[in-house]
């Protein structure tokens, strides 16, 4: 019996099977290495966070010497659980990259990096293969983000699919197996946007781990011979109509004359959600200030930032680290007091600081239509303006003119290294960090990526 072909499933399968290191642009290769470095740095920065500790404790109950390393330890667990732990830990500190493109569903594409590395460690692949899989997983994540239209579902769903495709390629799946892998990633897994709506819990970070685990597990099942449902995207009860919010095609995928989407992701240099960073940068221009001397603060933002991180009771009364780093009033108040935002800005001493809470009540968040228009351009700009009126009547103004993707692409390697050192040197030491950076910058020459996780052992 002839079966109707699911065009999206077939497109992703054919693209993944055809892509190899030699087809990557030099810019995509370099950007993939930067994302590996950046995500591993964020993992060490988030290693001691509560969800990271819980995930590690869980992994200790599922040992597997042939699986994947729980990075930061000598422990090895199953490949899918390793993906869960490492992706959760990397996301916790809110310093992994992010994505915005006009009309997209946005997201953190770096959620794919640790799960793909777990698959690569298990399969004992070379650095070039890992780089290819990272570029591939980003391509899938970001192309889907561009066409996704259902706000009820979280962008970590794109990480599940991107991870499945990248992990499947590293595990050497056949064409048919990879097709089934894709189906088993999208059909049984749907992460609701509720994971980052209203008052947030530690599962905000664990959602990234869950997506990575599910993607790797789909690849493992396919390799074992499991077949996925027919027509996962375009079937009557398929992903397009019931999850994505409508039918779509994937005509343009990176390679040849088409730009790889990994180049459109953006590095973060502050530990806060992407839509708050322009506010932090603007507040830094007038900080630090004595909070008792501040009469009023007006924060001008683009519409999406105001709606996502400047509106709602939870934004004005954050009860967790996870909600605080999604709150413009909180990060602006913290910046005005301390001069900037660091991972320590979200500890209990800051979170319940009465002076910080009092300053938050003096903050007003408004939309600036000019900034909204700038955010809708290509490349997008993240702009913000802070206006502080002091008790003496002085008016202080700080403005962030935006950090479009074009600027992110011009990041110097030295800036990437500076961020990495800031997240890792306290626990790994300067000498080890220097050696690690040397190895990661030469990732294309690494013969076996299983050599990478052990160099991050903290004990």
Folded structure, characterized:
The protein has 459 residues and is of the alpha+beta class. It has 2 domains: 7-267 and 444-456, 2-methylcitrate dehydratase PrpD (Orthogonal Bundle), CATH 1.10.4100.10; 274-404, 2-methylcitrate dehydratase PrpD (60s Ribosomal Protein L30, Chain: A, 2-Layer Sandwich), CATH 3.30.1330. 50% of the residues lie in helices and 8% in strands. The protein has 21 helices and 6 strands. Mean pLDDT is 95; it is low at 404-410.
What are the main properties of this structure?
459 residues, alpha+beta, 21 helices, 50% helix, globular
Helicity level: 40-55%
Count of alpha and pi helical runs:
21
Please state the structural category. alpha+beta
Question: How many angstroms separate the termini?
Answer: 58 Å
> What's the total count of β strands?
6
**Mind telling me which CATH architecture of the largest domain this is?**
Orthogonal Bundle
Work out the count of structural domains: 2
Give the averaged pLDDT, no decimals.
Answer: 95
Order of helical and strand elements: HHHEEHHHHHHHHEHHHHHHEHEEHHH
Query: What is the CATH C level class of the largest domain, in words?
Result: Mainly Alpha
Q: What percentage of amino acids are in beta strands?
A: 5-15%
CATH fold node name of the largest domain = 2-methylcitrate dehydratase PrpD
Spatial ordering of strands, largest sheet? 4-3-5-6
- Outline the low-pLDDT stretches: 404-410
For the CA atoms, what is the radius of gyration? 22 Å
